[in-house]
Design brief:
Elements: H1 18-21, H2 27-40, E1 48-52, H3 58-65, E2 69-74, H4 77-87, E3 92-95, E4 109-114, H5 127-137, E5 138-149, H6 151-158, E6 162-166, E7 170-179, E8 184-195, E9 198-209, H7 213-222, E10 225-232, E11 245-252
Parallel strand pairs: 1-2, 1-4, 2-3, 4-5
Antiparallel strand pairs: 5-11, 6-7, 7-8, 8-9, 10-11
Helix pairs in contact: 2-3, 5-7
Protein name: SAM-dependent methyltransferase
Keywords: Methyltransferase, S-adenosyl-L-methionine, Transferase
Domain Methyltransferase: 49-142
């Protein structure tokens, strides 16, 4: 097998080393920001929160430990396997390739989150459908907090660069290729993990798109959300031209046509 046919699904090979790879992520600061925004909307401990693209459960376990009722969905069976080991049988986890119908009763969640640039994996044609899927899970007044990598990060930081690192029992080489006509970056990740007879070599290809503010806001509005705010990287600061990560807070509106008694 050669070329793309030899590549594994994203986050299959990475699942086993993902938590160590991403250990520097400020998950606790992200959770502080999210829970503060939820509290401002009257959504406190005990509320039901859906972790969209939950990965290995790093955010879900922190929310659970703060008293929230958490459920998670992710497209990667391998990542969900790690999450199940971490979270145990009492947290509901499902494999879902978004956008798709969710395996939950509609409007059952008080809030949803989608962290660590998972939204950037959506092609532009799928963005509105994604928002509509999340909106269907939220009760009116529920919040959706998510982040996106900025255009600056995809163009200037990732760009068309390559880098790598050796972690002892695993190593990786990361190659980037930015396509300005599509507004997307392709990542080719080569992972070497220790095996009985040396190292095993696996490759994954990832693609991320960037979205401007109007695109996000309009897609969200058409899906039943209003924008509460967009800030820089889980802070209260306005995004700057060189902001790497933007954090959005949306509120689920009352569905049109619902009768009030």
């Amino acid at each position: 097998m050669t070329g793309l046919a030899a590549l594994g699904e994203p986050y299959t090979a990475l699942a086993g080393v993902y938590d160590r790879w991403t250990d520097p992520n400020p998950y606790d600061r992200w959770v502080d920001f999210i829970t503060a925004r939820l509290a401002q909307a009257g959504i406190g401990s005990g509320a039901r929160v859906l972790d969209v693209c939950c990965g290995t459960g790093s955010m879900a376990v922190r929310l659970r430990d703060r008293g929230y009722q958490v459920a998670g969905i992710d497209g990667s069976a391998a990542m969900l396997g790690v999450a199940r080991d971490r979270l145990g049988p009492l947290v509901e986890l499902h494999q879902v390739i978004l956008p798709a119908e969710l395996p939950f009763t509609p409007a059952v969640f008080d809030a949803a989150i989608c962290c660590f640039d998972s939204v950037n994996y959506l092609p532009p044609s799928a963005l509105q459908g994604f928002f509509a899927t999340v909106a269907s899970a939220l009760r009116p007044g529920g919040l959706f907090v998510f982040d996106v990598n900025s255009r600056y990060k995809l163009e200037e930081v990732f760009g068309s660069s390559q880098y790598g690192d050796d972690q002892g029992d695993f190593a990786y080489v990361w190659r980037n290729r930015y396509d300005p006509t599509r507004g997307a970056t392709d990542f080719l990740i080569t992972l070497f993990t220790r095996a009985d007879d040396g190292f095993r070599r696996e490759e994954e290809q990832h693609r991320q798109w960037w979205f401007d503010h109007d695109t996000i806001r309009n897609s969200a509005n058409r899906s039943g959300f209003t924008t509460v705010g967009a800030t820089a990287d889980y802070t209260s600061s306005e995004p700057e031209p060189d902001t790497l990560r933007e954090t959005w807070v949306l509120r689920r509106e009352e569905p049109a046509g619902r009768n009030h008694h």
